[in-house]
Design brief:
The protein is α/β, with parallel strands linked by helices and 344 residues long. 47% of the residues lie in helices and 13% in strands.
């Protein structure tokens, strides 16, 4: 058997992690994961892709040259903490750095919190990152030449994969990776800004299509979109159909976007004027109500609530990417959301 180019640990083997694992394995990388605390579905998913299972985080740290963290945003810090803790007990060659790529949908502030977690662990080199797009696609998982699509992976931080001796430059090129800054934060911030537009629009489509369904005018809405705004209609349909298995992940992601818009975009709630003094619309020539302009954080916390409703209160929340049953059309998504609203 040919020697692997390098060993890459992936936490965890979800839809995106599985796609990246298949791409790496097709290109002669060894891929390992620790799924000891995951479901049997995750175990089967990993084995089906020839991902090697290791029993502990310490074993993962000992064997990996790189670790890619690709988990729901709510789990990003805990995964980083697990790896930092494991590195203290792992039997690893001290002169050989471990590259930890945090590729989760988190705010720059959360990324900096993770960086602080690793600050006393010099053998771990952190890259802040984000994945823009869907999982890689191979028509034949055993043939690297059959890859028809790769997402964009943006990274930032003081370290670069091009410094890594274990095929870092090749890995960066294979994963369509671009290093955009020497600071921690810009890569995750770019991911947040992109996701705000794409997933924000899907949340608008959920509310619009559900409301139209409850009013009995969904066919008319779709017809008008097709005639007067076909690109929006097509984007809405794609977003609605692809969203159900991911809605639970997007709840926390929208909270991270809200934090990004507040802390880095300056879109804080202006109900208290930013300094504790109420700002009245009358001061701007409006009425007597407090202004609600500029509430970027409130906007995306509302979007988070939309996805929480889908994940927790509709049958769509039970969907899994590999075994879809419902929500395969925009009409069915709207019908199921409308049905849940009746009982809401």
């Amino acid at each position: 058997m040919a020697k692997s180019l390098a060993t890459v640990g992936i936490l965890s083997i979800g839809d995106m992690g599985l796609g990246i694992a298949k791409l790496l394995i097709a290109n002669k990388y060894r891929v390992i994961t620790n799924v000891s605390d995951r479901s049997q579905d995750t175990h089967r998913r990993a084995r089906s892709a020839s991902v090697e299972l290791v029993p502990t985080d310490a074993a993962l740290v000992e064997q990996a040259d790189y670790i890619l963290s690709i988990v729901p945003p709510r789990d990003a810090f805990s995964i980083a903490s697990r790896i930092e803790a494991a590195s203290r007990s792992a039997q690893r060659q001290q002169s050989k750095p471990l590259y930890f790529l945090d590729l989760n949908a988190i705010s720059p502030a959360t990324s900096k919190t993770i960086a602080a977690r690793f600050s006393s662990t010099p053998t771990i080199r952190l890259l802040d990152g984000g994945i823009i797009g869907g999982p890689p696609k191979l028509t034949d998982p055993s043939d690297a030449a059959t890859c028809t699509y790769k997402p964009s992976i943006v990274v930032s931080g003081p370290h670069s994969l091009h410094e890594a001796s274990e095929g870092g430059q090749h890995l960066a090129q294979l994963l369509n990776m671009k290093h955009i800054s020497a600071e921690i934060g810009p890569a995750s911030g770019l991911k947040m800004c992109f996701a705000a537009m794409s997933k924000g629009f899907t949340a608008i489509a959920i509310e619009s299509f559900t409301t139209a369904e409850r009013m009995g005018v969904l066919p008319e809405l779709q017809a008008h979109l097709a005639e007067y705004n076909p690109s929006a209609g097509a984007s809405a349909a794609r977003g609605l159909v692809g969203m159900p298995p991911k809605a639970y992940r997007w709840v926390a992601e929208m909270e991270e976007i809200a934090r990004t818009m507040e802390e880095f975009g300056g879109f804080r709630s202006r109900r208290s004027g930013g300094d504790g003094d109420a700002v009245e619309d009358g001061e701007r020539g409006g009425g007597n109500k407090k202004s609600e302009e500029g509430r970027g954080g409130d906007l995306f916390r509302g979007v988070s609530d939309v996805y929480r409703f889908v994940a927790d209160e509709t049958r769509l929340g039970q969907e899994k990417t590999e075994s879809r049953q419902r929500g395969m059309t925009a009409e069915d998504v709207a019908a199921l959301c409308a049905e849940a609203m009746i009982d809401h």
